[in-house]
Amino acid sequence: MPIYEYQCRDCGKRFSFLIFSIKEEFEPRCSFCGSINTRRLISRVRVLKSEEARLENLADPSKFADLDEKDPASVARWMKKFGKEMGEDLGPEFEEELDKAVQEEYTRKEKEESSSENFESEE
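The chain above was modelled as a monomer; its predicted structure follows.
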């Protein structure tokens, strides 16, 4: 029972259908606007891995090669990659909060450097 993905050519939204039999006639209709002006998309392939296999993959030291724990942006990139590897959809809220935390850390460091420079110039 394959799931086919389509995109509506009228409203641009993507939608999918579970097809019970490839023999039956099927005319995809947009589930958002009702249009039959659609095109079939090529779906992304997902490979199912056990949690053990995913954890084993993350234990590989080469996965940490580009991680700089002192750089918030590097940690954020690693956290996003970790979430994807674990098959978790962290959602846009998580990414927004992560980006916000990175920006706050850079702002804090800039203030510290600025106040340090001001202190040194006063001496």
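The mean pLDDT is 80.
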